Amino acid sequence: MERADLDKTEKINFLEFLTVMEKRTEKTDASVVISEAFRTFDTNGDGHLSVEELRHVMTCLGQPMTDEEVENMIRLADMDGDGKINYAEFTAMMSSDEYD
């Protein structure tokens, strides 16, 4: 409640309520978009994005990349070092300011 009480009156007015709800909706919408994107990109359904899957996605999005560029992208996002991007890594990558 403290974060929602922007004017520090110890009460949440309608404008403050709308502000909080807008922020929550934005986060929810973003997480739904990220989830749907991951499922779409993970063409074999194994829960990971491989070099081939990521290269295919980028090509379909009109951003063809070499294997080396895709491998570098995976290396930057691959927190567990398995050479693939899992859902948590994809979410972190998509939420990062580097990819805006």
TrEMBL record:
Gene3D superfamilies: EF-hand. Residues 1-27, 29-64, 65-100 form the EF-hand domain. GO terms for molecular function: calcium ion binding. Keywords: Calcium, Repeat. CDD domains: EFh. This is EF-hand domain-containing protein.
